Amino acid sequence: MKGAGAMIDEWYPVGLFSKLTEAGSKTALMGEPIEVMRTADGAARVTSGDGRALPVRVRYGHVWSSLGTPAKELFAIPEADQPGRRFVDVGVVRVRCSPLRAVENFLDIAHFPFVHTDILGAEPHTEVENYKVEIREEEDEVWATQVKFYQPQAAKSATGGITTEYMYRVPAPTCSVLYKTCPPRPEEWDVITLFVQPLAEDLCDVWPWMALFDDVTPMTDLIHFQQMIFLQDRSILENQIPALLPLDPGMEIPTRADLTSIAYRRWLKRHNYLYGAQLVAQ
């Protein structure tokens, strides 16, 4: 757990609760081997490589655990308790990148027209309009609001191009929650999350999860749409240099579109969330 810093005491996704078996499955968390299983009475259990029972929570369709002692409960997503939503366990994608890089990429708006062409963005609609970013001290979370972007197909349920409004929230170092325009119900927000399991500093499992208002689209299509989007991201993530996320402001040159990334990096550094980060140029 070299370089773990304060991140050792945070909650991380380690598997889908629906996929647990009594036989268990082996995985890793921050370089340490762990095993995730379902007990005979149906509860989730997570153990370290030496057999130590680790803390467990089951929420948002996933099993969460920690190698340390979390000082606070797992962050809340109120929409997870809202009647009428469909909850989509998208599955898992393994990515050869820093877990922090995976989150930062999720926060990036400017790549939409170039990586998700004719879906989440399209030329010539490449300009990122002004938006608001803040670190909310009371919640201790990074938020970006008033984000707007033209999208040819904002969601599987969308029937044409619309200007989509976004809000981004970072409630934990390797998790992000996205609120975006809900095409069938413009007065509501669709919720799309990125839960990242840090296997090592340069390797992670990404578990997307969604809470949507969509009574029409088959579940398989919802899953395939979101997997397609993230697989487009994976090729970019696995070729980023440096592999770890730079926290020194002078190591990469930000643009106006990178305000969320700047706040995220500042927040990570403030809290000593350094697993998967690079502090100085090499």
UniProtKB/TrEMBL annotation:
GO MF, one annotated term: dioxygenase activity
Transmembrane segments: none
Ranges where the Vanillate O-demethylase oxygenase-like C-terminal catalytic domain occurs: 95-270
The entry's keywords: Dioxygenase, Oxidoreductase
Keyword Oxidoreductase attached: yes
InterPro entries, per database record: Cholesterol_7-desaturase, VanA_C_cat
Protein name: Phenylpropionate dioxygenase-like ring-hydroxylating dioxygenase large terminal subunit
Organism: Rhizobium aethiopicum
